[in-house]
Design brief:
single chain, 128 residues, mainly alpha, 2 strands, 8% strand
Length: 128
């Protein structure tokens, strides 16, 4: 009986760790979504620019003039990278969710085993 309780405790701790991993992965996904939105907005601003208008890039406390082609290339590269990271994060979230479901099933089995073990010796026959 003690070993079942110890296993249940261990499973509960693993379950909690998985939930924390999931929360971290979801937060990472949210940050990536925000970055994607920000870079998409910059890309839309580039489309609105007329030929000959200047683009400036903030580097530390200084604004530096930047070529439109170079700026667009940088933003497109960022969007591509963010897209790949989002896919990786979504796969990671699915994987963690699968692990959580598996762990939940193990916990339920351990609880059932504990209840069956606790109930068996103390049962009183009610039918004569």
């Amino acid at each position: 009986m003690a070993e079942v309780q110890a296993r249940l405790q261990s499973l509960s701790e693993d379950y909690t760790k998985l939930q924390q991993e999931l929360q971290t992965a979801v937060q990472s996904q949210q940050k990536l979504e925000a970055q994607k939105q920000e870079n998409s907005n910059v890309q839309k601003e580039f489309e609105r620019l007329k030929d000959g208008e200047n683009i400036y890039k903030l580097v530390g406390p200084v604004l530096l003039k930047q070529e439109k082609v170079e700026a667009e290339s940088t933003v497109n590269g960022r969007l591509e990278f963010i897209g790949k990271e989002l896919e990786r994060t979504e796969d990671q979230i699915k994987e963690i969710q699968d692990k959580i479901e598996k762990k939940k099933g193990e916990i339920i089995q351990a609880q059932a085993g504990l209840q069956a073990g606790a109930g068996a010796p103390g049962k009183v026959a009610t039918k004569a």
